[in-house]
Structure formats: C-alpha cells, structure tokens
Amino acid sequence: MGVALITPFTAEQAVDYDALEELVDSLLKGGADFLCILGTTAETPCLENDEKQEIIRRIVEQNNGRVPLLLGCGSNNTASVVQYLKETDLNGIDGVLIVTPYYNKPSQEGLYQHFSAVAAATDKPVVLYNVPGRTGVNLQASTTLRIAGDCPNVVAIKEASGKLDQIETIIQNAPDGFEVLSGDDAVTFELLSLGAVGVISVIGNAYPEAFGTMVHAVLKENMPEALALHRKLHPLYSLMTADGNPAGIKSLLTAQGKIKNVLRLPLVPATTATLDAIKEYAAAFKEE
C-alpha cells in the first residue's frame, strides 16, 4: 500500500513543511509500504521548482531509508524528463513514476519511444503511470507490454484507466518482474483480486492502517476481512472524487485536524456539501 502524498499549504498558500513532516510520520507509523512524492495528488503542477526540491529533500531525510520512495517526474516533453533524470541527484529515491505525456496526445509509437528514452536515461526502476482521464491518451495494453519487454528497468505500471479488460490483459501477459499497481482506490479490491500487487492510494493519506490492512488481506487471500474493510471505506470513494482530487482528500485530512483546507488555483476546496459529508464519515469512522 503506497500513498500518493498530498502537499499541505498554510493559510497564506506557502508549503506547510511542518504539516507535511507530521503527515509523513503518521504514514510511516501507520504501516505504509512506500510513499509516492510529487504525483497528481501533490498538486505538483502548482509547485515551484525550489518547493519541489525542498519537499524531496525533507521527505528523503525524514524517511531515512525506512520505506521505498517513488518520485513523480513525468512531463509531456521527453527531452526535459531525460535531462532531469541525468542531471538530478536522486540519492534516497528508489524509483521514478513517469506519467504518459499529456496535452500533446502522442500515438502509441510515440508513447513507446518516450518511455524507452526515459528508461534508458536512468538506472532507477521506472513505474509507468496511465491515467487517460487526465492526460487525454490511453497507454494501451499492447504498448505497455512492449515497453515492459524491451526496457528491463521498467518494473511496473500504475493503472488508472478504469479499463478492467485492459488491465487484466496486462496482468495476464506481463513478463517476469513486471507488476501492476492500482491507481484508483475504488477498484483496488477488484484489481488485487485479478492479480495486481498493490496500490498508490489517495485515501491512504488519511487511513493508512485501514486501507493497508485491506490491501494486505486481499494479497493474503483473506477475502472476508478484505471485503469488510472495502465496504467500510466504500462511501469515501465517491466523496474523494466528487469535487476532484486532491480536494476530497484534503477535506478529509482537514476533518482529521491534520492540515488546513487550502489548495492552489486553479484547484479549489471541495464544496460545503462534500466537506460536511466527509466530516460525518470521519466522525463515524473515529467512533467505531
């Protein structure tokens, strides 16, 4: 159970490094298996380069090798990703998460060549990230499998396409050493049942123990325990996405008293109705 870390902000919209360190500490104590830094949930497009570097530095230092760290560093410019990987000190980072290029909508051949070039630029393990709802392009199963077969350090894919047939095709035909991670909390139970090995979770920011226990229960084939936890968490899945990510998870963390409910434009906090529903859920969860 990996966690896609949020970026807390102060009321003045500066990065709240104190809240970030407290959150990381709670996740490590809560049993998170790995942390994903500067992904979608971190509002990375709204962060300045110096803020990104300071976030990485602090988390690497705080983690101190306790769990693997996966760094999001994708772009729709292949050359810039290659340059970043070649020139950046990635000491303390265990792997990189590379999203499919967005906006310019490359062909499947373009995607293959992009990921091949990125993989050749680093000796770090590479995790592909397919999220067509955000990027406008779907990394098809055949292309994923071609990349996995040709690039030895491409070790996994975070699949958030929602295309279960496509994901199952990847799972069934993946070469040895290539794994599938769920990129969507709501379908994690099902994907793990099909053969995925884990998740990069949003809800894990708030409930690392509960969601992690659900994930590990499926992997251990303890389906009754897993199903019970999945159903307990089920109401949250739609609330987390009702007003977009990370508006939902930031509302939940605010309800838990861990952060301020601040996002950077063009992102805005969840509506009052969504926040009230999340607060109600969090209060009931705490009481159980």
Task: Give an overview of the whole structure.
The protein has 288 residues and is an alpha/beta fold. It has one domain (2-232): Aldolase class I (TIM Barrel, Alpha-Beta Barrel), CATH 3.20.20. Helices cover 48% and strands 12% of the residues. The chain is built from twelve helices and eight strands. The chain has helices at residues 17-29, 49-63, 78-87, 108-120, 132-135, 141-150, 164-173, 188-194, 208-219, 223-241, 247-255, 272-287, and strands spanning 2-4, 34-37, 69-72, 95-99, 126-130, 154-159, 179-182, 198-201. Strands 1-2-3-4-5-6-7-8 form an eight-stranded parallel beta barrel, surrounded by six helices. The radius of gyration is 18 Å and the shape is globular. The mean pLDDT is 97.
Mean pLDDT: 97
Gyration radius (Cα, Å) is 18 Å
Approximate shape: globular
Please give the share of residues in helix.
40-55%
Task: Give keywords.
288 residues, globular, TIM Barrel, alpha/beta
Give me a quick take on this structure.
With 288 residues, the protein is an alpha/beta fold. Helices cover 48% and strands 12% of the residues.
List the helices and strands and how they pair.
Layout: E1 2-4, H1 17-29, E2 34-37, H2 49-63, E3 69-72, H3 78-87, E4 95-99, H4 108-120, E5 126-130, H5 132-135, H6 141-150, E6 154-159, H7 164-173, E7 179-182, H8 188-194, E8 198-201, H9 208-219, H10 223-241, H11 247-255, H12 272-287
Parallel strand pairs: 1-2, 1-8, 2-3, 3-4, 4-5, 5-6, 6-7, 7-8
Helix pairs in contact: 1-2, 3-4, 4-6, 6-7, 8-9, 9-10, 11-12
